[in-house]
Amino acid sequence: MKKAVSILLLIALLFSFAACGKKVNGENLTTTETTVPPPVIEKQSHSKEFKNDEGKTVFTVDVEVPQITGNCDESVMKYINTLSLEMFDDACDFAESNLENAEKFMASSGSDSPWSKKITVETTYADSRFVCFLMKEYFSIGGDAGEPVWSSRCFDIKREQVCTLFDFMVDTDNPASGYEILLNDILIPAVRKDFEDTATAIDETAYERFDQIFSSESFYLTEKGFVIFTPKNRLNPSLSGTYSHEFSWREVDFCISMPEE
Fold first, then answer.
1. What is the pLDDT of residues 96-139, one digit of tens each?
2. Coil, strand or helix at 120
3. DSSP label of 169
4. Distance between CA 206 and CA 209 in Å, rounded?
5. Edge-to-edge strand order for the sheet containing 225-231?
6. Which of 21, 118, 126, 130 could form an S-S bond across to 138 if both were Cys, CB 3.0 to 4.6 Å?
7. How far apart are CA 245 and CA 261, in angstroms?
8. What pLDDT does 35 receive?
9. Which pLDDT tens digit goes with each residue over 11-65?
10. Coil, strand, or helix at residue 220?
11. What is the torsional sign of CA 193, 195, 197, 203?
């Protein structure tokens, strides 16, 4: 009797495994926890030409705008998309406020090349919790645009807000203290090392102003960790372009980390 009961229990157990599994190539596989997919992101291009009274183009605007189209709550999607579209509106406002300057410059220099503002966008990170974009803005006065100006936006989908580095501090009760540790104990040594083999030295007084040189908003997430950036001329007035440094979560986990769900 006991043997018969044991056999029945074994059969029931096998059926329970089969019920929780799925077939792949004819084989039963047990299911695992479903991962929430990241938002679907599309890149849209928005352009506009601004002409003078004679109908001559004196300013052009070309902006790439990230737009979330799926796998995201409707209200969060609207929030992120609306903020992203503001990049194009701001670029157009800048163009309109400089139409007279552009027209005068083209006339005085004999140039047929209009002024232009161009913004490109890159999705540096996306999962079910965070979406992060890196924007590079090029401004041209009738010629080569030169080095772009970087900016970024990191969105917390769960909290429906724009993030700063303060939102990733391990010490949530005192994030300012964690940010100070990030600047002094992590970022300063990294900058020193990055510039030790270059011909251009960073003035020592710059290291005393890192809280002004670097912004808690000037960062973006990556698959490895995060990147902090700032214009190089803030480190040394003779430099151009953007300084950036990537940190892995592992090397900075004593003060900053990816928040848990």
1. 999 999 999 999 999 999 999 999 999 999 999 999 999 999 99
2. strand
3. B
4. 5
5. 219-221, 225-231, 242-248
6. 118
7. 26
8. 82
9. 444 444 444 443 433 444 444 556 889 999 999 999 999 999 999 999 999 999 9
10. strand
11. negative
Q: What is the C-alpha R_g of the chain?
A: 26
**Inter-axis angle of helices 74-97 and 99-109, to 10 degrees?**
40
Q: What is the DSSP letter of 247?
A: E
CB 42 within 8 A of CB 69: yes
Residues above pLDDT 90, as percent of the chain:
79
Instruction: Write out the DSSP string of 122-156.
Output: EEEEE-SSEEEEEEEEEEEESS---SPEEEEEEEE
- Distant-in-sequence contacts of 182-186, Cβ < 8 A, 24+ apart: 182/252, 182/255, 182/256, 183/210, 183/211, 183/214, 184/210, 185/255, 186/247, 186/251, 186/252, 186/255
Tens digits of residue pLDDT in 137-157: 999 998 888 899 999 999 999
Give the sign of the dihedral formed by CA 196, CA 138, CA 234, CA 174: negative
pTM score above 0.90: no
Tokens of 100: 């007279």
